[in-house]
Structure formats: C-alpha cells, structure tokens
Write a structure and sequence with these properties.
The chain has a domain at 4-117 and 209-221: Peroxisomal Thiolase, Chain A, domain 1 (3-Layer(aba) Sandwich). Helices cover 35% and strands 18% of the residues. The protein contains 13 helices and 11 strands. The chain has helices at residues 22-37, 52-55, 61-68, 85-98, 118-126, 141-156, 164-174, 188-192, 252-265, 282-291, 300-305, 322-326, 333-346, and strands spanning 4-11, 44-48, 75-79, 105-111, 196-198, 201-202, 212-220, 228-237, 274-276, 359-366, 371-378. Strands 3-2-4-7-1-8-11-10-9 form a 9-stranded mixed β-sheet, sandwiched between helices. The protein has a two-stranded antiparallel sheet with strand order 5-6. A hairpin with a 2-residue loop joins strand 5 and strand 6. Helix 4 (85-98) packs across helix 13. The protein is globular, with a radius of gyration of 19 Å.
C-alpha cells in the first residue's frame, strides 16, 4: 500500500454565497487545490455533499464538477454521509491512492444551504436522523443534541454556562481566520445572553450553517516526500437513533475510529498537537474529547475550563474557528477541517498558527454520531 500525501489544498470562504452556484463554489476550491499542488490533471474526483439533490435540484455532482474543472474522463462520484460526507469522500480518495489504482485524486466537499427557506433547510438536514423513529416525532437536530446535553448536565453536575469556554475559544480562533463566517471574539457575558434555541442549547452552543467548499489533492508520498502525510484514516458507525445506543453519552464510533487511526499512525492521544473536532454543538465537543482519549468520561467540559483546549493549551481544538465560528457548510465541513490541519502543519495558518505543530487529528461526525471519520496528519521530519 502506498502512503498518501496532501500535495495541494484549497478553500472558499464560508459565507452566504447567494451569487455563487454550488458548481462554482466547488470549482473555486478544486482549482485552488490543483494550483497549489501544481497538478493539471487528476485520475478521480470524489465529492462530499449532503443536500444538493433536495435543496439544489442537482445530483450528478461528481460529473458536473469534473466537467467544469476540465477533467473529462476522470472518475467522479459524490459521497453522502450526512455531516460526515466530506471526510468520507476523503477516505475514499486515500484508499484509491493507497491502493495504487490512482496517482492523483482531488477530493472536494461542497454545500449550498442559505438560499433555501429555513424550514426547507432544517427539514433537509433532519433527514440524517432516523426517519421512522426520530424524524417522525418532529424532533430537529438541535433538539436531539439538547436532550443529550441536558442528560450530560444531569449526570455530571454541570450548568449551561459551564460550556462557554468551547464557544469563546472557537470565536477567538475564528477571528484569526479570514475564511471564517464569524470573525469576532465573544466574552462570557455575550455567551450567557445568547438566545436559547432548544433548552439548554443557545445560539452560541450551536454552529451556523453556511455555503462553502474545500478541497485537497492527494498523491503517493513518494511523489511528494516533503508534503504533509496522511498517517491514519478510519471510519466507524453507531446506531442512527440516539435512543438505540447503549450509552447516549458515549460516542462509540468516535472511540473506535480514533483508536484505529492512532494505531495506524503509531501514536497515542498524548502525541496529538491539535484536534479539529466536530463542534456542531458544544456538547459534541465535550463528548469528542472524551471518546478520543483526551479526557475522562464527564471531564471534557473541565478540560475546556482548565484552558487545555486553547491555542497554547495541551490539546488545542478548533484552531481556525471550528464549526461554530468558521461555519458548518455540512457536506464540506470535514474537508475544511483537513485543509486547516494541513495549513497548521505546513506553518501556513497565519495568525491562527499553533507553534511547533507536527501531528493533527481531525474528526468529522455524520448525524448525531452514527458516522464518524478520523484522520491523523503528520508533518515529516526534516
């Protein structure tokens, strides 16, 4: 099996792109990644997206993007795994290059959410839940996460304001990222005054949707020996419905995928220099830290309170804003995480740079934990 390197990255700013189509967003990110890599032709294009068929009346995204990137003849297909679509596409790209079947693969995550009426967008995103046993009850994703957060607070004795450090960190880091949707820091008072969306979740506990696209170009490491390497890649699943899980406060798929990726990389959690986790909601940030081995059960919130998640902390998270400040263009999010981690390891993260970072973990979650994909990236030693 070939080891895989990230030769190029590209991204579009996360915004409300009312004047740009989904194809244009994807092409913008894909072209930037190809230019960054100095590659004119690719063997395959894997696209992560969740809602184009329902909200944009556009399927066949793979072929469409290949066409407008001038990559006629390349294999091209769309991957869907709800909010985990982009990292799932990345994993397929990694496997294609690692197998030796492909020499150059372009992976693109793209989503266009803001042009549809709010109810339509919410309904489309809710299809990531169990249609027969969750969706039919009228529960939204914010509602499901509110139930989990309330249970966590009950079990471990926390109050809503205890989750504030996750939002404060994300917004402070987003202020350093020109591609983030929200580029302004907040304080404890602003967090406390945030409007409740689904008790106990407030506006600052939930990530905003947006339009965006991010891309990476993958090649065998022998073709790019100094490029950032993918040294771990793993995916796992859990039950789609939260109520079917043995323990709703434990992300079993996160634990399994992280452990597998660590083993492939030959590392443990303590070797990770930064963690781009899937903070769609504050509660998910806490649960992810615990499941991936950075905190004991019930201690994820305390890790944030101790400052360990800050840029200068033991395990910096959401270093360029995370989902909360960068924004959450659902089917593109996992690739934004990977682009940001690559920039960090290259030393190209600008004001958001984490000093000395060499190993990064990214984690992309589909639904409320049914699909979780983990990647470990490493900067090669000189």
């Amino acid at each position: 099996m070939n080891q895989v390197a990230i030769l190029g990255v590209g991204q579009a700013p996360v915004r409300e792109h009312w004047d740009i189509s989904i194809r244009d967003l994807a092409i913008q990110a894909g072209r930037k990644a190809m230019q960054d890599a100095g590659v004119a032709h690719v063997d395959a294009i894997y696209v992560g997206n969740m809602t184009s068929g329902r909200l944009g009346q556009q399927r066949q995204l793979g072929a469409l993007i290949a066409d407008f990137l001038g990559q006629w003849g390349a294999e091209a297909v769309k991957m869907e795994a709800a909010c985990g679509s982009a990292a799932s596409a990345m994993r397929q790209g990694i496997l294609a290059v690692a197998s030796g079947e492909m020499e150059a693969v372009l992976v693109i995550g793209v989503e266009k959410l803001t042009e549809s009426p709010g109810r339509q967008t919410t309904a489309a995103l809710a299809t990531a839940a169990d249609a027969d046993y969750e969706l039919v009850q009228g529960v939204s994703f914010v509602g499901l996460n509110a139930l989990v957060m309330r249970r966590y607070m009950h079990e471990y004795g926390y109050e809503r304001h205890d989750f504030a450090p996750f939002a404060l960190n994300a917004h402070a880091n987003g202020a350093k990222n020109p591609n983030a949707l929200f580029r302004k820091a907040i304080n404890q008072q602003i967090y406390d005054e945030g409007r409740i969306v689904a008790d106990p979740i407030s506006l600052f506990d939930a990530s905003p949707i947006g339009d965006g696209a991010a891309a990476l170009l993958l090649v065998p490491t022998q073709k790019a020996p100094t490029a950032i390497r993918v040294v771990g890649s793993a995916a796992s699943t859990d039950t789609l419905a939260i109520h079917d899980r043995e323990d709703p406060l434990w992300l079993k798929a996160a634990e399994r995928s992280a452990k597998t990726a660590y083993r492939q990389a030959g590392i443990d959690a303590e070797d990770v220099d930064l963690f781009e986790l899937h903070d769609a909601f504050s509660i998910m940030a806490a649960l992810s830290l615990e499941a991936c081995g950075f905190a004991e059960r019930g201690e994820g919130v305390r890790l944030a309170h101790n400052g360990d998640i800050l840029p200068e902390g033991r395990i910096p998270i959401c270093t360029m804003g995370g989902l909360k400040a960068r924004g959450h263009p659902v089917g593109a999010t996992g690739l934004y995480q990977l682009v940001e981690a690559t920039l960090q390891l290259r030393g190209d993260a600008g004001k958001a740079q984490i000093d000395g970072a060499r190993i990064a973990l990214t984690q992309n979650i589909g639904g409320s934990g049914a699909t979780i994909v983990a990647h470990v990236l490493e900067r090669p030693l000189p």
